[in-house]
Specification:
Bound molecules: 6-diazenyl-5-OXO-L-norleucine
Helix content: 25-40%
Largest sheet: 7 strands, antiparallel
Radius of gyration: 23 Å
Strand content: 5-15%
Strand order of the largest sheet: 1-18-17-13-12-9-8
Shape: globular
Length: 567
């Protein structure tokens, strides 16, 4: 009898162990029920806890957005903006635009001097660079429509992090130190904020943010009013007055995130669900994928001359379209159907040749540089029911405009720099633009963010996205073709070295090891200029494998703090 008892306990234990094995399978990043991939393990953990409490992917996304504002202040935010692309378990899709917009008092030439020249830095640093923030209204809308758990439950983890403090990772300490003087300068005279320091930040120290904690409590208790009205709004308006910024009480009151039909496209046997304007991300991505299909990119070896040359030639044409045609659809008519039509694209790509390099300078002269940057952040979530959400959110530059709202403990974005502040003059990502993306009051600035969900044979296949300014589109593109054309496993899709090209400047940026010496010589012989770049993009992917299990694929190689956490 006694032995039987012992035996049944052993069997039970073995079964439990087997179940657990089944959840995690061979790799640490394979999960049965749900997974969250973000740039910071603490945020992934917050999202996973929400999933485990019965929250859905959309609940987890809201909690992650707020958590990132505390643990990853250089890009996570409550005073920035972003986009969410969603696909429900039933296969319905939608996109949420919580992009910042220009204040009512903004004007086309606000960053130009009397001679019509750009005033250096004005659209990037300080109060005038700030767009009306969209993140809080975005999260409220996402929760209202799709949430399952209470709003309070979703904001609480961020409050706890701000209250109890966040242990600084080496990466975050380094970043704060690199920007310390600039942040101090823009915020001189302010006291008490945890980001203002005369001494270095150190790995392992705990940063508490009681001011942000209070703001988050107001958001928890009052929803959008906790940010766009009352005490938080007053702090933002005082901050604007202190630095001659343009955002008014009405700007805050009237800000609205917008639900938009997702941009849907077809590429081989995949359905692409991506972000429509005011992001250029979805359109450019679909154009590139059409090109990959047209040239049957998968017939070439990964990293070969043909693979790289073709990508660069496609990218050059697509970024030229971006600069000319794309802007806020509420303010200019974006010819989406035309830009994505088969006829247009076949014709657009018809002069690509394997024997020649086309010349960007012939299309339009320009002398611009791409600046390496990772200040946006992307996260992906899939839940136990199969709901998926892909969110890219940003302050634009690292710590945005560097302006901290006094008494609020949070950074304001510098998204105004994403407008074309003067036709043909490059922004911080080297992107140029014209009328379609010119500044107008209350208009949304054009983005490159490309949160994307891929379906294959009617089923969820991949949730993907990246930061990286102009390199977002090409990073997401390569990630998808790595899976579909080159049949890489989910983690290899992310790990594989990347290149980037964007019409102007007429260059190919390449991560170390992306181009072998022989291929490099062949490309140079054709006239390509190659410039090494230490990192391009930072994916946060989830893929569904043949067994229907969720594979989290963080970009830990490029960003150590990234993590996939699931159950
Ligand atoms: O919306 C955009 O395209 C940019 N504001 C994104 C900025 C970005 O990705 C910065 N770096 N990683």
């Amino acid at each position: 009898m006694k032995l039987n008892r012992v035996l049944s306990i052993v069997v039970l234990l073995l079964l439990l162990l087997a179940c657990n094995q089944n959840n995690k399978l061979k790799s640490d990043n394979v999960f049965k029920n749900g997974v969250v991939v973000t740039a910071h393990y603490l945020a992934s953990d917050v999202g996973n806890n929400i999933l485990k409490q019965g929250g859905n992917a959309f609940d987890a996304a809201v909690a992650v957005q707020f958590a990132l504002a505390v643990v990853y202040p250089r890009a996570g935010n409550i005073a920035g903006g972003g986009f969410a692309v969603i696909r429900t378990a039933k296969g319905e899709s939608e996109s949420l635009d919580f992009r910042e917009k220009a204040p009512k008092a903004a004007s086309e030439k606000m960053y130009l001097d009397a001679n019509g020249n750009v005033i250096e830095g004005l659209s990037e640093i300080g109060h005038l660079a700030v767009g009306v923030p969209g993140s809080v209204d975005g999260m409220v809308k996402l929760h209202e429509k799709y949430g399952r758990l209470s709003w309070e439950k979703l904001v609480q983890p961020a409050i706890d992090l701000a209250k109890n403090g966040v242990i600084l990772t080496a990466l975050e300490a380094d970043k704060l130190n690199a920007y310390r003087e600039r942040i101090n300068k823009v915020n001189s005279g302010k006291i008490n904020c945890c980001y203002l320091r005369k001494t270095d930040f150190k790995k392992g120290e705990v940063i508490k943010n009681p001011e942000l904690e209070n703001v988050l409590i107001r958001i928890k208790e009052q929803g959008r009013k906790g940010f766009y009205e009352g005490e938080t709004a007053e702090l933002i308006i005082s901050e604007m007055q202190r630095g001659k910024g343009l955002i008014s009480k009405e700007d805050l009151l009237e800000y609205k995130a917008v639900w938009r039909p997702a941009l849907i496209g077809k590429y081989r046997d995949c359905k692409l669900i991506s972000m429509p304007p005011p992001s250029s991300g979805g359109i450019a991505l679909l154009q590139l994928l059409k090109g990959a299909e047209e040239f049957n990119l998968g017939q070439y070896q990964f990293g070969s001359f043909e693979h790289i040359h073709l990508m660069v030639e496609l990218e050059r044409r697509v970024y030229a379209d971006r600069a000319t045609w794309l802007g806020d659809p509420d303010y200019c008519s974006v010819p989406v159907n035309k830009l994505l039509s088969e006829e247009y694209l076949v014709n657009r790509f018809s002069n690509i040749s394997m024997d020649n390099k086309s010349n960007s300078q012939e299309i339009k002269a320009g002398n611009v540089e791409v600046i390496e940057s990772f200040e946006t952040t992307h996260f992906s979530v899939v839940d136990q029911w199969g709901n998926a959400v892909s969110v890219t959110t940003t302050l634009n530059g690292n710590y945005g405009s560097k302006v901290i709202v006094e008494g609020g403990g949070f950074f304001l974005n510098n998204e105004m720099d994403d407008f074309s502040i003067k036709p043909g003059v490059p922004n911080q990502f080297g992107l140029v633009g014209g009328k379609a993306n010119a500044i107008e009051p209350e208009k949304r600035m054009l983005s490159s963010m490309a949160p994307t969900i891929v379906e294959k044979n009617g089923k969820l296949f991949m949730v993907t996205g990246s930061p990286g300014g102009s390199t977002i589109i090409t990073s997401v593109f390569q990630n998808i073709i790595n899976a579909v054309e080159f049949k890489m496993n989910p983690q290899n899709c992310v790990n594989a070295p990347r290149i980037h090209s964007q019409w102007l400047p007429d260059k190919v940026y390449a991560e170390t090891d992306a181009i072998s010496p022989t291929v490099k010589r062949n490309l140079q012989d054709l006239g390509h200029t190659i410039q090494e770049q230490s990192r391009i993009g930072m994916m946060a992917n989830i893929a569904v494998n043949e067994d229907g299990l969720l594979v989290g694929a963080p970009d830990t190689l490029r960003h150590k703090d990234s993590r996939a956490i699931g159950y």
